[in-house]
Each structure stands twice: as C-alpha cells, then as structure tokens.
Amino acid sequence: MPESAASPNPNPSPTPTPSARKLSVMLWLVATGFFMQTLDSTIVNTALPAMATSLGELPLRMQSVVIAYSLTMAVMIPVSGWLADKLGTRRVFLGAILVFTIGSLLCASAHTLNQLVLARIVQGVGGAMLLPVGRLAVLRTFPAERYLPALSFVAIPGLIGPLIGPTLGGWLVQIASWHWIFLINVPVGVAGCIATAIFMPDSRNPDTPKFDVPGYLLLVTGMLTISLALDGRAELGIPQATVLVMLIVSLAAFVAYGLHAARTPRPIFSLELFKIHTFSVGLLGNLFARIGSGAMPYLIPLLLQVALGYTPFEAGLMMLPVAAAGMFSKRLVTHLITRHGYRRVLVTNTVLVGLMMASFTLSTPAEPLWLRLVQLAVFGSVNSMQFTAMNTLTLKDLGMGGASSGNSLFSLVQMLSMSLGVTVAGALLTTFTGLIRHASGSSVIPAFHATFVCVGIITAASSWIFAQLSDDVRRTAKKTDPSERA
C-alpha cells in the first residue's frame, strides 16, 4: 500500500547512505512487516468458528472480528504518510510494530467478542502503517536505480501471507488454540522493535504541510457510518430507523468531503484525480467488484466448517487451490488485455467471477471432492485476473503528479471494500439463516447458498461500471508498483 497523499516527495531532503548491512536488515524489516500485515488479514478466517466457541458466540456472528481490522486499516491509510513525514520514518515504523504487537497480545488475551474487536482495532492501527511507512523508508534510502529490486523484495512476503494464512490459521487452531494465531506475532514484533531502533534509517520532511483534519474526519465519518449501517442491523440489532439515519449520514459525509475538497488548496485526495477516466472507472469498479471478492475469504471457511463439517486445518488446506490458481493466472490476464483491451476483459471476467461465486450453491456434503477443488481453483483464477486487471487499469494513467494521492486513495478503497464485503456477507448470512431456519428447520446450508447467489449478483452487476470504458484502452506501458497488493 502506498504512502499517504501528504507525502508526494519520496526524498525531500538528503540523508546519509547507510551501510550495505543496514540496508539489507532494513529490507528484511519492511518485508517482515508487510508479511505480518497481510498474514493477519487472512489467518483469522479459518479460526472464526473456534473463536466463537471459546467466546460463547455464534460462528455466523463473528464478522466484526474481520471488519474491525480491515476498516481500521482503511481509516489509518490517509494519515500514515503524513505521520512519517512529520515524526520520522524510524519513529513511526517502530511505533507501528509496537502497536501491532500490543494489539496481537490483546487479541490473544480477549475473553469476550467486544474485547477481541477492540484489540483488532488496535492491531489494525499498527498494521495500517507497517507497509506504507516501511516503503517510504525504502524510497528515501535506496538510490533510484535500486528502487525496483528493493520494492520487489518487499512485495514477496506480502504475496506469501495470504497464501499460507488460512492454512496456518487452521493448523494452529487444531494443534493448539486460536490464541496462537495472534501470539506468533509477539516474538517477531519484539525482535522487529529492537532491529528497527538499531538499523532503520530516519528521515522526515521538514516542509510537511498541515494535515487536512476536516477532510479526514468527513471521510472517516462516511466509512464508519456506512459499515455500521450495513452490519448493525444483523449483528448489533440496531433499529431500522437508526440504520436509515446512518446511511443518510454516510452519504452526507462523502458529499461534504467532495465540497470540501473542491475549495481546499491541499485536500487529502484531490478531486482532480477523478478527471482521469481510467482511474475513475477503475476505482468505482474496485469498490463494488471487491465487495464480493472480500466476502469470499470469510464465507468459504465458514461454509466448510459450519455447514460441511471440515476441521479448521482441512478448511485452511481447501483455500490453497484458490491462492495457487490465482498466482498462475496472473500472466494470462496481461496477454488477454493486450489482445482484447480492458473493457472486454473486465466486463467478461467480472461476470465470470460473479457466476463462480454463485456456483457455490452446489456445495453440499454430497459434492465430490474433485469438483469442489476444481471449483475453488477456477474461482481463484478468475478472481486473481480480476484483481490484476482492475489494479493496472486504475493506476496506469496516474503519472508522476497523481501517483502518491491516487495510490493512497486506491489503497483506502481496497481496504474499505474488503470491510464492506465481510459486512454485507455477514448481514446476508444472518438474515437468510433466520428466515430459512424459521421456515424449514435447522440446516444452515440453504442460507449459505442464498448468500453466495447474492454476492455473485452484486459482483456480476458491477460489470456495468467497466462497460463505460472505451474499446481502445489497452495494456499500460507504465510499470505499476510491485508492492501493490491484489
């Protein structure tokens, strides 16, 4: 994830070049921080039923544990780069590791769902700053000719984290307890704090502009109220009238930010970005298409464990075909875009992703294992191609002037849509569970089937956004940042 829009200049002042040993250790620090951040985005999913049993909650009402982390990260993204400019990269990176580690310890110590959610918020505050600030330190320390290999090195653990997260989470739950998915962060965090204090170079921007506090508060208000409105009715029992008021407040906050940004000299995110057609379409497409994609890592492990009787470790293993097929399909989408253009590829593939989500209505105890594995692999493949195509479309025409602000806004939208995906999935699943159980008995499988159909429809419908592209938009010649997450 990129640094905040508040830090457009990656090297505002000359800094002494550290020794080769310090540079090597710093790269490992940043890479490890990215790994911890991405691992904790997925490791929790397979552990939710075990957490629910331990905390005396229903497994289908645990979505707030996932939402709290991703939504907090979305909220903190705009401020991370500004803090690094103002306080220095070493101090902020050290603080990020410390807060993330304390949050992990608090998660492992939680005895109630509310305590766990609060601890995940603390963990998310630290996690949100690990990569943006670490990457900023790399950009300000390494010479320009070494940027690409350095950022590529940092990006690799970020790809490994989501790949092994569900399986590692299921394995730890099965051999020990769910507490260990958080406790494994503690020794790594302690070592990271010590190494950061010794090896991380420090840099800051003495000309850091004033932070756009009113704009930031408007954005945060909009993000929080829309999440509470969507999740509050199902999980918190908030009355319908209150939910409606929250939705109105959310809309008003986003509109107010647009008016504020139009008359503010240096807003967090400039409205000029939306004059770039590919960026506007890509950003809106990411927001809505990723709702379904954000729901699936939450829904699939729950389906396997709660409805189909898989153990946590088995459920984690079943997620490997999704990740493996996704990695192998990334090269294919580049060829397809070059040949057919973004519009045709994204419209077609978005519909395919929606259909594959809806295909999980086939999931029953009688479904053959080979068919389930093929289904997961095909979903992983088209979902990965969707991410790659959307990412490159969104970033390809930003240029140098809008790269920092556009990247930061794009990262915020990614995390917000992940949070909304779990929010929508949890609300749908809770609603359908109540309706179907009341009508036909105790089985939760039909509720899962109905939820998969709904998220599939939401995703397929977002293809209309990509249909607004012109046919001649082809593969970008600009190389996107290798540390950009799928």
UniProtKB/TrEMBL annotation:
<dbReference type="InterPro" id="IPR011701">
    <property type="entry name" value="MFS"/>
</dbReference>
<protein>
    <submittedName>
        <fullName>Putative transport protein HsrA</fullName>
    </submittedName>
</protein>
<feature type="transmembrane region" description="Helical">
    <location>
        <begin position="279"/>
        <end position="300"/>
    </location>
</feature>
<dbReference type="InterPro" id="IPR004638">
    <property type="entry name" value="EmrB-like"/>
</dbReference>
<keyword id="KW-1003">Cell membrane</keyword>
<dbReference type="InterPro" id="IPR036259">
    <property type="entry name" value="MFS_trans_sf"/>
</dbReference>
<keyword id="KW-0812">Transmembrane</keyword>
<feature type="transmembrane region" description="Helical">
    <location>
        <begin position="448"/>
        <end position="469"/>
    </location>
</feature>
<feature type="transmembrane region" description="Helical">
    <location>
        <begin position="150"/>
        <end position="172"/>
    </location>
</feature>
<feature type="transmembrane region" description="Helical">
    <location>
        <begin position="409"/>
        <end position="436"/>
    </location>
</feature>
<feature type="transmembrane region" description="Helical">
    <location>
        <begin position="178"/>
        <end position="199"/>
    </location>
</feature>
<feature type="transmembrane region" description="Helical">
    <location>
        <begin position="64"/>
        <end position="84"/>
    </location>
</feature>
<feature type="transmembrane region" description="Helical">
    <location>
        <begin position="211"/>
        <end position="230"/>
    </location>
</feature>
<feature type="transmembrane region" description="Helical">
    <location>
        <begin position="91"/>
        <end position="111"/>
    </location>
</feature>
<dbReference type="Pfam" id="PF07690">
    <property type="entry name" value="MFS_1"/>
</dbReference>
<feature type="transmembrane region" description="Helical">
    <location>
        <begin position="369"/>
        <end position="389"/>
    </location>
</feature>
<keyword id="KW-0472">Membrane</keyword>
<dbReference type="InterPro" id="IPR020846">
    <property type="entry name" value="MFS_dom"/>
</dbReference>
<dbReference type="GO" id="GO:0005886">
    <property type="term" value="C:plasma membrane"/>
</dbReference>
<feature type="transmembrane region" description="Helical">
    <location>
        <begin position="117"/>
        <end position="138"/>
    </location>
</feature>
<feature type="domain" description="Major facilitator superfamily (MFS) profile">
    <location>
        <begin position="26"/>
        <end position="474"/>
    </location>
</feature>
<keyword id="KW-1133">Transmembrane helix</keyword>
<keyword id="KW-0813">Transport</keyword>
<feature type="transmembrane region" description="Helical">
    <location>
        <begin position="236"/>
        <end position="259"/>
    </location>
</feature>
<feature type="transmembrane region" description="Helical">
    <location>
        <begin position="315"/>
        <end position="333"/>
    </location>
</feature>
<dbReference type="GO" id="GO:0022857">
    <property type="term" value="F:transmembrane transporter activity"/>
</dbReference>
<feature type="transmembrane region" description="Helical">
    <location>
        <begin position="25"/>
        <end position="44"/>
    </location>
</feature>
<feature type="transmembrane region" description="Helical">
    <location>
        <begin position="345"/>
        <end position="363"/>
    </location>
</feature>
